[in-house]
Amino acid sequence: MRRGLALVTVVLCAVAGCASVPSGSQVIGGRITNHQQPIDDPYVRVIPVGPGRDWDPGKIITAFQAASGSFDGPNGDHKVAREYLACGGCWQPGISTVVYDRMEQTSVQIGGAHASVTVEVDQLGRIGSDGQYIADSHRFKATYQLRQDAQKQWRISWLPQELLLSRNDVNRAFRTLDLYFFSPDPQVKALVPNPVFIPMVNRTWLSQQLVKQLLGGPTTWLRGAGVRTDFPGGTQLRRLDISGGVATVDLSRQARSGDLRNMSIQLMWTLRQLREVDQLKLEIEGKPVQVPGVGGTVQSASVWSGYNPDGQGDAPRGWVRTADGRLARLDSSVPQVLLPKLRVSQPAISYDARQVAAVSKSGDTVTVTDMTTGATRVVLHAKLAGGRFCKPSWDSRGNVWAVESNSHGSRLWEITSGTTKIAVDGWTLAPYPVRALRISRDGTRAAAIVQMGQVSQVQLGRVDRAPTGGLQAEGFIAINSDLSAALDLTWRDADHLAVIGATDSNPSPLLYDVPVGGGTIQPMVGPGGDMKAVAAYPGAPLLVAQHVSSPQPLDNVCWLSDKYGEWKCYDRTSAPAYPG
Amino acid sequence: MRIPLKASTRRGLSVIRRLARAALGATQARWRRSIRVRVVTTTLVVSAIVVAVLGVFLMQQITNALLEAKERAALLQLDDGVGIAQGRLATGPSDPETLNDVVTTLARRSGTAGLYEVILIDDRDPGINGFSSNAIKPDSVPARLRLQVERAPASNPYRTYGRLSYDDGTSTAGLIVGAKVNAYQIYYLFPLTQERQSLVVVQRTLFGVGAALMLLLAAIASLVTRQVVIPVRLAAQSAERLAAGRLEERMKVRGEDDLARLATSFNDMAANLQEKIVQLEELSKVQRQFVSDVSHELRTPLTTIRIAADVLYEAREDFDPLTSRSAELLQSQLERFEGLLADLLEISRYDAGAATLDAESIDVRELVLRAVGDTEDLAERKGSKIVQQLPGEATMAEVDRRRVERILRNLLVNAVEHGEGKDIVVSVAADRDAVAIAVRDHGCGLRPGEAHMVFDRFWRADPARARTTGGTGLGLSISKEDARLHGGWLQAWGEPDQGCQFRLSLPRVAGAELRGSPLPLVPPEVELRRAPYAELKLEADA
Ligand SMILES: Nc1ncnc2c1ncn2[C@@H]1O[C@H](COP(=O)(O)OP(=O)(O)O)[C@@H](O)[C@H]1O
Ligand SMILES: [Mg+2]
């Protein structure tokens, strides 16, 4: 009897234990979900609505403008906005997109069953049908024709073919992503990013469009730089499926004749920008293909990390110029002077950190110094009247680029293998003074600050060979119309610049992150003083040279410690440099 | 409409049907015969019902608890969001960019797992009806909820369940909560995928556990019934064996439980029974011995009496009529006495198991002829004629000549005595294994039930008349024993005023087992008359 009672108690306790949650346990690590959801990084869309009853033409146009900011419908073809049109097919907004800042309706004329509305916008730039953004700020005028339909409702019967989107619409509805291509020089292993604007119809559409654009080749602008793509002409995307971190790309049969390795590299680098993609599985005509050098059909991103457009290996040390003009390396809290005899101004370090190119104090000669031997050679003298060199720039092949400018124009020089100087013939910026020029690591693009009248603009150009065989630097386009007074710039990585500059709305110079694709610039917190120069290298802290006036006037170079998010400075230094 | 089937299909179908019927029959038979099958099936059915009811109840409880928790969390999240939105939108009508920012902020708070989607409705700007996060379609907010939220005072939350539809055409069940902030409506849409998954896991577990429980219960029931049924089955077997005459059969007694008690009492019963039967056997043995002894003892004095009576009988003419009559009576009753004594001795020989078969191969017809010859005189006196129906060829059989002659003589005498002067038919027939001899008379016959009693010792239909006909009442008993000694049958048929037929069937080979008889027991003409058609026919003839 007593034993029975004890048993009942034990059972009851056990049952009660089942119904309770643990009040203590071991510490368990790991995420609850095993792979990243495609939802992360949420996006927001507007909910467009069709026209209301008895709206006047002005309201119709305003509402149409607002509704056309939504890429709704199965292919992002503005299904709802088309309800405002009298004709469904008369509007093909794929041609180009006008990005504007402010819009106003300047005139509304109504005559019987017809009306016309004129709209004026402050254009910032245009996004081409290939996704390339070109900053081009001017006033743009668009006229809309309307007519009344059978129910006496106003509908748009004629309209400009461009899609007019406000800057905010573009920020919301577009994503800037890079397409990756091979550098024209087969010796250079790094990929060249080609930033494009793709409308965010939805996540799957975005990723499909990204691959389609990659298959379609570089934008017309970058095509001029001669970048290589390994997808044979006519290759189509049959299917793209992203699940569990693996992107399965199914290409049409034309892809058989392409180099599987190179196609995989381009696909992987392009697709890994999407957070949900970690691995790639390449298929041709539905059959998985084995890519040479990869075990299994699923390739992980790390296999192709050697093609990083930002280069590989550890971030190099930064260099500065000390107060007495010597070159010092930032090894510890005190800059280390390595060559006591060398005096430099505006030093530029080669990618192998063996040579340093510098401009003489007067600014009219360029010298190259071998850092192992300490031997210095003067390689370039100014040719223009009153010509001054700005800071030279190295490319990854070991060539030095230097631009010489006076108040009327500029000339570009290339110094190959440290000795031979070549004047670059196809230099489209020749009529303008150039304040800074930096060649991208892959050697295909050049970022420059161009003085155009009162405005010093950030422009991006191509470096390539003319059909005649001579070098040329051409195709310069403005990438931003906000920055009106740029002082210095550097490449942060393959598709971002760090620029010290001022905007119209904020005249004091700030540090900006500028995507070369034309996306929105982001101000960064600077060290606080009067900024003069900036140096950057992927993975290394940003170096900013500044002048502080209190407590005493002083030049220093500061670096952003990523540990504490604060600026640390080396007093009495200037002219910061990283290899490049 | 019936679709004509191919012959092969039809055949296949019929085979299936037959198999199914056989299976059903087998199942029914098992159900009827086996307690265990019944108990296990009942347990299975009952436990299945209990488990199903319990499972449904549990499932409901868990679903409710899960959804309640979800609703609470959703309302808290919405509260949070409404607070943030109120902070940002407090300063009068806001431009689309602020709204966009608010939605982005709220959507960011949903986390990387995409806990919920946000929809902000703002119907004051032409062309735009608000903002939505990610791929959610604005029509995922049901009209009934929108109506409520629109009408309600600010920041009163409402919730409902509905389907969340997405741009890519998929949709899932979801919880939608909403509230009004200034002139705007904010909706949070929670997909219930996680909850569904949890419920599926719970459901699967419940199914598994339920099935396991059912099987376990069935196994327990099977085990328990097995423990009960096996002793019962053993008891049944023992009882069967006991019934078959194996009196030494006993059950094993294990333990002290009810079944052990059953075994003990069964054994007690068997022991008592055995004791009684042994006692009875002893008793009858003693009696038989007594009869045999008495018969033997009587023989010697009887011989002496017989000699004396013979002398008296020879000299009866010399006596006065009364004395002479007495001598005659003495003579005849002595003959009867001798016969009775002979019969008694014969019977007691059987009882003692001392009767032996002296078989030889003989033509049965010859035996019949001889027996008929012996009784012909008597028949003539009674006015009966004996008709013989014998087969044309010899019908050989291994029989004991003396015993079969005795049987036939007895049957014939009986037939003559009870035949009321009518014809007597003796027929013989044979097949591969057996021979049969039937004696048919048309006398007074037998009343129902007497057909078996005629073979009892000292049984007579009319005891009073018996004295005159002079039978001992032992004749048929001895004949029956004789037939049995051959491994044959002696059977009687009779109906009042229809006469009798006695049939003797014997195996052709001594000691072989008899399976059937070449002659019918009931005379064919009687059998025919009994059949309804035959009656009709008779009437028609008349
Ligand atoms: N053929 C028959 N017809 C009617 N009754 C018969 C016949 N044979 C026998 N019986 C009945 O069976 C009884 C027993 O017969 P049985 O054993 O031969 O003894 P017993 O002839 O000495 O009387 C007879 O008394 C008679 O009543
Ligand atoms: Mg008799």
From TrEMBL, chain A:
The keyword DNA repair does not apply. The keyword Signal applies. It holds the Pfam family Gmad1. Keywords: Lipoprotein, Signal. Residues 1-19 form the signal peptide. It comes from the Bacteria. Residues 207-293 form the GerMN domain. Gene3D superfamilies: YVTN repeat-like/Quinoprotein amine dehydrogenase. This is Lipoprotein LpqB. The gene is lpqB.
Automatic annotation (TrEMBL), chain B:
Its main location: membrane. CDD domains: HAMP, HATPase, HisKA. It is found in: Cell membrane. Residues 293-510 form the Histidine kinase domain. InterPro entries: HAMP_dom (IPR003660), HATPase_C_sf (IPR036890), HATPase_dom (IPR003594), His_kinase_dom (IPR005467), HisK_dim/P_dom (IPR003661), HisK_dim/P_sf (IPR036097), MtrAB_MtrB (IPR047669), Sensor_HK_Regulatory (IPR050736). Pfam families: HAMP, HATPase_c, HisKA. The chain crosses the membrane at residues 39-59, 206-224. Residues 226-278 form the HAMP domain. It catalyses: ATP + protein L-histidine = ADP + protein N-phospho-L-histidine. This is Sensor histidine kinase MtrB.
